[in-house]
Amino acid sequence: MTSLIPLYLQLAAEQKSAEVTDWSARISWVIGLIVLIAFVYWLMRQGWKWRGSLQSDLPELSSTPEGFADGEKLLTLTGRYHASTTAGQWLDRIVAHGLGTRSRVELTLTDQGLDVVRPGAADFFVPAAALREARLDKGIAGKVLPEGGLLIITWAHGDKLIDSGFRSDHSAEHPAWVEAIEQLTSTTEGTAR
Asked: How far apart are the C-alpha atoms of 132 and 184, rounded to whole Å?
């Protein structure tokens, strides 16, 4: 036994105690990380505001005319509004007048035009004369879906052409919308001549 005691004492002498956590350094790192995240979000918000000020020349959006609900509805759709962009530029999001805000949407198409009702965001109306085309696509300003997953409606507002992206709760409705808007624009162009 006498030979084990010195070994036990030797092992006990070599063991080190666990390092003490430096709480002040850890708290400093957490606070620094929170400040960095807040700064990045602030920069993103400033960029959004800056984009809105660059697009301030865009006229106010039209509101739904009186008697619109009395007309015959060609089509209705419920789903999601994803974004509006400059026509042909699927990443150039328009944020002026709330067009950059994603939301639920209820679309109604009549001979008078397209009524866009967005709970929680600004509603707008696109007169039939301003509608240019509709197509199926796969992406718009931060939203990419399978081919044909988005209904893109091109319309004129002021001197600018705008693409607005919608996704129906039932994507099988999209082709009917493309066809109906093509028919509406062809009849509108025919009467304008």
From this structure: 9
